[in-house]
Amino acid sequence: MSGHVERRVINPATDAAWSELVCGAGQDSLFVAPPWFRAVANSYDLEPRADLILEDGRPTAGIAYAEIDDPRGKRIVSFPFADYCDPVAASPDAWATLIEPLVASGAPVSVKVLECEAPLHDERFEATRALFWHRTAIAADEDAQWSQLGGTARRNISKARGNALEIERRSDLEALRAFYELHTGVRKHKYRLLPQPWRFFEELHRQFGERLQVLLARNGDEVAGGVVLFAWGDTLYYKFNASDPAHLEHRPNDLLAWETINLARALGLQWLDWGVSDDDQPGLIRYKQKFATEERHATIARTRAASVDPNAAHFGAVLGELTALLTDERVPNDVTQRAGDLLYGYFG
């Protein structure tokens, strides 16, 4: 006879039942970690929620999400501003039980999955985009890791060392702000995107403390490049990367990647997660492929039948036009940053 089964709605940022679930399922990634939920929620005024299935009081399945209602329309996203956020659903029945109330709400439902294939076999959902995901297995020693690299990566690392680039490891707000200035420039000038609000980086720093690491590549007094990393579980997450175009000939990105791998080993971690890349970023994908030992796809899937609010569609179009205007070369970076403060939350 089966035990007592119940359904419960919790806040995964504060309720220990969520951590019990994801840790027990081996799915305790950065993007389902309570401090990540708190940083996103506090930065974008969102309320994290998770629907759990409990058997005899023990969580056995669950999905984390946020309900958003803004000028872009009502929608349910699992989970905004995460590289991926897999539901814990070991069977089709568990997936069906979790997703049914969300679909029944009538709001569009969007999930971004790396491991869970249930949405891809659910006729109510359609895959709207495939993303490239990479990670690196951390070798036992530096020589073994070096032997895994291709010739291009080795040459670029050696060139960076020959150019006397120095790598600085820090975890303070001043270093994070130095990175953020580079980050703004890359998003604005290379991708024509608004930067995330500075308050989001401040929140990440507040929530993760020394689990957040900043590596800066310096060429004398100038910052040539940088990465923001998060240590969580057995993995180091390579979440943000930026570099100064004026210093690209010195190959700061390759040296930063190599030192990131070495840091993961020094911290006793098993993996380096490079995150997801859009298929329209071939240069970024090739860069990660030089160091990765594994490549897979993450998938964004959305409900098919959700109706499109014409007012929301119009607002989305205007948001795109505003982004193009505010990332113009003639707009000062501090204005672009302020625009990100005001508008970035609508991209959730």
Layout of strands and helices, then pairs:
Layout: E1 5-10, H1 16-24, H2 34-44, E2 49-55, E3 58-70, E4 73-78, H3 92-104, E5 109-113, E6 125-137, H4 142-148, H5 151-162, E7 166-170, H6 173-190, H7 198-208, E8 212-219, E9 222-232, E10 235-243, H8 252-266, E11 271-277, H9 282-289, E12 294-303, H10 310-326, H11 333-343
Parallel strand pairs: 4-5, 10-11
Antiparallel strand pairs: 1-2, 2-3, 3-4, 5-12, 6-11, 6-12, 7-8, 8-9, 9-10
| Number of E strands | 12
Helix content: 25-40%
Number of helical elements:
11
What structural class is derived from the secondary structure elements?
alpha+beta
**Major beta sheet summary:** 12 strands, mixed
Low-confidence stretches: none
**Termini separation (Å)?**
43 Å
Overall 3D shape? globular
Alpha carbon gyration radius: 21 Å
* Proportion of beta-strand residues: 25-35%
Order of helices and strands: EHHEEEHEEHHEHHEEEHEHEHH
State the strand order across the main sheet. 1-2-3-4-5-12-6-11-10-9-8-7
Mean pLDDT: 95
